[in-house]
Amino acid sequence: MSKKAKAEIADESAVIITDAVLAENQAKLDSYEKAIKAVQERRRKVIIDSKLYTYDKLSQLYGGAEGQALLDAVTAEHTLIGKLTDSGMSYADIEGLVDYSADADNKSDDVADGQTSFFGEKPNPYAV
Which residue ranges are recorded for the region named Disordered (predicted)? Predict the structure, then answer.
C-alpha cells in the first residue's frame, strides 16, 4: 500500500474517531443539561416552599394577618426598630420595651392592646 493510501485511511479513521468522540461528548452534554434543568426545578420548588413557610410563620406571629395587612405590620415594625437602633438603642434595649405579660394573659387594656411584639421567641430575629 502506498503512503498516500495509508494517509487517506488514517485520515478517514481520524474523522470517524473524531465524529464518535464528538457524538459521545454531545450526548454527555445533553445529559448534563437535562440534569441541570431537573435540579433547577427542584431548587425552585424548595425556594417556593420556604417562602410559603416563612409567610405562614409571619402570619401566625402577627395574629393571622395576611396579604397587605401582614406586609404593613412587618414594614411598620421594621421601620420602628430601625428608628430605635438609629437613635442608639441596642436590640437588648428594644427587647426591654416589650410587655410579655400582655401576651401571656391576653387581658391588657393598655393603649398597646393588639400591638405585635417586637420579637418572637428569638431575642433578636435580625441576628445572623
Answer: 108-128
For residue 99, how many other CB atoms are within 10 A of its CB? 12
Euclidean distance between CA atoms 36 and 43, whole angstroms: 10
Q: In this structure, what C-alpha cell is assigned to residue 7?
A: 494517509
pLDDT tens, position by position, 64-120: 989 999 999 999 999 999 999 999 999 888 888 887 665 555 544 444 545 555 555
Reported as type and span, the H/E element at residue 74 is helix 67-86
What pLDDT, in 10s, does the model give residues 52-63? Answer: 999 999 999 888
Measured from the Cβ of residue 62, the count of other Cβ atoms closer than 10 Å reads 19
Rounded to whole angstroms, the Cα distance separating 113 from 122 reads: 21
- Sign (positive or negative) of CA dihedral 80, 86, 89, 90: positive
- Contacts of residue 114, Cβ cutoff 8 Å, sequence gap at least 6: 63
Sign of CA dihedral 79, 80, 85, 88: positive
How far separated are the first and last CA of the chain, in Å rounded?
77
